[in-house]
Fold each of these.
Amino acid sequence: MGKIEWAMWANEQALASGLILLAGGIVGVAGQFRGWEFAAYAVAAGVFVCLLEYPRSKRAKGTSVERSGQYCFTVCVKAFGPLTRNYYVRAFLHAAICVPGGFMLATVLGCVCLGIASLIYLAAAIRGEHWEPILPRKDVRKPVAESIKNPPQNPPPRPPPETRRKQAKDLEGAAYDNPSSVTDD
Amino acid sequence: MAVSVRSWVANEGGKHLVLMLWLGANTWLFLRTYLLYSTGQQYHYLYKMLGLGLCISRASASVLNLNCCLVLLPMCRSLLTFIRGTHTVSSRKTRRLLDKSKSFHVACGVAICLFSAVHVSAHLVNVVNFSLSYSDDFPALNLARYRGEDPKWIILSTIPGVTGVLLVLILLLMFISSSYCIRVSNYEIFWYTHNLFIVFYTILMVHMVGGALKYQTNLKAHPPGCLRTNQSNSKLQDEDLVQAEDDDIRCREDAHFEPHYPQTWLWVSGPLCLYCVERLYRYIRSSDPVTIVTAIRHPCNVVELRMLKKDFKARPGQYIVLNCPGVSSFENHPFTLTKCPTANKETFGIHLRVVGDWTDRFTQLLLPPPRADMEILPMVQQRRYPKVFVDGPFGGPSEDVFNYDVSLCVAGGIGVTPFACVLQALLDGWRGFRLQRLYFVWVCKEIQSFYWFAELLCALHKKLWQENRPDYFNLKLYVSCTESLQRMSEERYRPLSSRLLVGRPKWKMILDEIGKSNKNRRVGVFCCGPKSISKTLHRLCNSTRSSGTVFEFNKESFS
């Protein structure tokens, strides 16, 4: 159980709770049930939680799969700096948001789920996790080797002209040892 | 790429037929229960009080019963392995359907969640109606204690209400933690929350205790809609009196109501018992510890483990689940067998790739890194291997390689493990099978990976060559990383290096070539590798082929 990343589970749970809170709030407002003001609050709270939780955090170890279209949300959430990085803040924020949902029947489920998500975030914060934005990686081009900028000034070494003329007439006599090795052993 | 009807039916037909049957069963059950509650005479008064919410909630409840019953069956892995193994019971078509058991489980799970949402919404409406339309005429029918009682207290003071809330919570926990990204990154969270199903089923079986919904028992004596002569019902009085006189309906007695007996246990207890028996059987079977014979390190982070266990029988293509208490008491990891026990040699083996923390720690226990002071002297002391428990073997799609005339096996990287077992079985005796020709394509990132099974491939090639069947085994090796030049320079691996190609394989050309050499035949395609390869192959298997060959796609997945 040592290496579980609780934050990822908390994130999924919180996103789902946001959606459930939103749905319950819409039903409560549409039906004009008793206490529909709580339902209206739940709609706003649900939208806020969904926006906050949509961008996934970067995993500490392994590949992170981001949700589709999450880049703009990442930028917005990142802008709040330590408020969104720290999971203690998120745990207490979710615990505070979920309380008013418990007063109306339609939003009770969202309230309980958000409460569970808040507890899991607390566990993640105690284990020292924090939120990292997933930003697109800039491809580093391989640095151009210095030798490309300085082409050789001299032609490759050739045997002297007498030997070269001899090569055409006498092949065996023209043999010479290559000074440098051509294999990369 | 045009989709050919024949290929599509061969590949997808069975799955879609089962899907249609399941949807049909759900729809029929929903409609039947809906009509029963909306038109049934025994529910007449209840329907008048609650309205549409009654019918929808009961109909969704019956669909939930069916799906809660079916969702456990695909997870009885030992039973499915047994069905797969008996050729008398199952044909190749049935075995291919068994490959999709996990998808069926997911489909039933999604249906449970959807219909739970419908059921909960309808019952919430019912609770509000119980409170608003409190019936003074038939007090036995009421769930609320007085008119206008707060629905929240109605829910919290009845057994169905409290159990319903708990069930929804557990279901949500199970559903949210079974999403793909959590399964891939932290499998333990998924496994432990999913094991809450036992709590879910226990609470489900007592959900109906208390009888919130009642039906009328004395229909003959009190036909619904008739009026007692001394009862005042001002709205309908005139019309009903006239009708009563016309039709000669008389109420002889008051309406009696009885609550329903809980019915869910009829649906659910069978599969639940079956699943619990299966888990117990697996636990007992895996409680014999396994002797580790040897552990060998291979290039590219792969370790081969050879083990011995009493009465262990396995077929090629099956997998086992390993548990090592020295690493983690509760984690179980599946590994495909790369060597099955035979009559001559009883050891069985797996190849595991070191990827996550469990495999890392396990490898460290198996092959401890050499200590600095022991480098000079050879390691002579007795190797103390950790205790390991093996559960299995469980069936996989690759068991069917021998049941086609011609098979194509495509492996990506470590996905070669199920096929290694198949090749080993061919090496032991290739004549006894229906298989007449095997095409084997293995794609790896680095050339060092081929050394995992280089001996096996060369031995099989040599044996078939000597026994005058060189066309039985057609090998193609691909190295997908084209950046650095890689060679296999050993002389004894010449059959491999001469069949080695650099770059990714062109699947369409490979399938065309196989199709031309095997006209009008059914070729089994077995793929075990990354999603990109299996998607491409699946699409190509469904498309038209001028040679008349039908490619049946079977996929093995490691998730």
Amino acid sequence: MGSRASTLLREEEIEEIKKETGFSHSQITRLYSRFTSLDKGENGTLSREDFQRIPELAINPLGDRIINAFFPEGEDQVNFRGFMRTLAHFRPIEDNEKNKDPIASEPLNSRSNKLLFAFRLYDLDRDDKISRDELLQVLRMMVGVNISDEQLGSIADRTIQEADQNGDNSISFNEFIKVGNFLIFCIFGNMNYYLT
Amino acid sequence: MGPFLDFNPFDNLLCILLGISFTVWFTLLLVFIIVPAIFGVSFGIRRLYMKTLLKIFEWATHRIERGAKDNNHLLYKPYSNAIIAKEPTSLEEEINEIRRRGSNRDLDSASEFEMSDIFYFCRRGVESIMDDEVTKRFSAEELESWNLLTRSNYNFQHISLRLTVLWGLGVVIRYGFLLPLRMKNFLSEQVHLMCYRICVRALTAIITYHDSENKPKNGGICVANHTSPIDVIILASDGCYAMVGQIHGGLMGVIQKSMVKACPHIWFERSEVKDRHLVAKRLSDHVEDTTKLPILIFPEGTCINNTSVMMFKKGSFEIGSTVYPVAIKYDPRFGDAFWNSSQFGMVNYLLRMMSSWAIVCSVWYLPPMTREEGEDAVQFASRVKAAIARQGGLVDLLWDGGLKRGKVKDTFKEEQQKLYSKMLVGTQEDRSRS
């Protein structure tokens, strides 16, 4: 408990994170205390094991994929900035941002960034296409052992058939958006926040 | 020679004064603490002490907040505040909701797989990363107001001179006065009930017992939620119990051995604990003998931080005798009683206990329960747990306290997978029929 006080965030860091992610001051401090409580090693970064220690996440069928989304390519540790950057995808979409900077890049919680997050849950090898195999992998994670390979295969085939437009037997990001369900993620990608 | 002669009478005077004051202090100690303890009489001084402390804590917190605002420092917010609101909808409901809202098509027959189905799991996953129900139960509860103990202050910065002085005074009182007083009393040897009562006084424990007419009787099993080893002292000072537990080494082991001499307790070797049948047999033998004291068991199996009640192990509920549930709730403002055994050992914990302001708790004796027809041990255990949680104002969780140290079982994940599969496959059958 003593170490927590000594590693309180500096004001400048909080401002930077606020600009980058759009979270409010109190939300950032609250999530920082969450971050430090998950960080058992107390070295300022989280590893995959730290995430897996959350029981509700460990029993989530897509738990491993979600954890993966926090770690940049090939890395095993994520610091607080990276943690917040990923969580920023789950903030509500605002039409007029207060700190709107014309030069700034698209906000992390924009519609297309949220969809990209979901797309990347499927697209493990980051080749910007969801292949039949990748679709099958995710399906298998969600159903466990309860559905046979053949049935699962036919579900995957049907899905690709419906979504694929250019006939390459895989789903690109543009095809993914057009599947028509993207509006929900924009609704469901948001949490109901208590703190403002 | 001269200076020495001068010193001697002065020295003597000092010694005499010290001697007198020590004797006086000791007598006061005896009169005001030990004698009433033996006769179970209270002076009401402790309640006054409690009220005064609370007022001081409020002032201290107010000062910290004001100081933080003035200096533009950051205040650490207690992590137990929820950041997101979670909806308790089921897997099926939510996935159907997702599909319904997003689809252009008319959905009379539920479609099978949609790529948007992952959104449900994704959202649940990220929600649990932001805030989950389990991991926060294994660390000490965080307080809204500071209680002048460094160990519960996360904003420890110099805010004002007055506050620091008050804190310093608190340290002096707690370590120089309360701690030695309690060490002395703790080590004294007395007969069973008297001993426990003194421990209770020693810790300045202010315990409120509710519904004492439901106190456990011989031949029954007393079941309570577990927060610290002090639970035992608290319950045992209001009635005689037979304890069940593992034989520990070190300080605990010595205490356990001395307790056995006073009363027939049931101690197990570590190897015997693994053999559940042996444990169950010894417990039921004890219970059948109605001259023997009621057994005291903590079915959670480990210390939880007193904000929730976790899964009760079904072993004690299989024995088939009357169960007397007891709910224990500590007031964390005066000193956190939770023992985080992975963070500090027994001696360290006792030191913290004895140097906190007081142990304030409420004990509720709930009406006895027995297993009903057609109810198995697990359902009975949940029923008892729900009653204890309701009475103590604690959150009733299904999660296993063993998650403090171990991993969660895969069966929970498999359950979710099964539910989702039913959604997909169920519609397949409808399709083939139509």
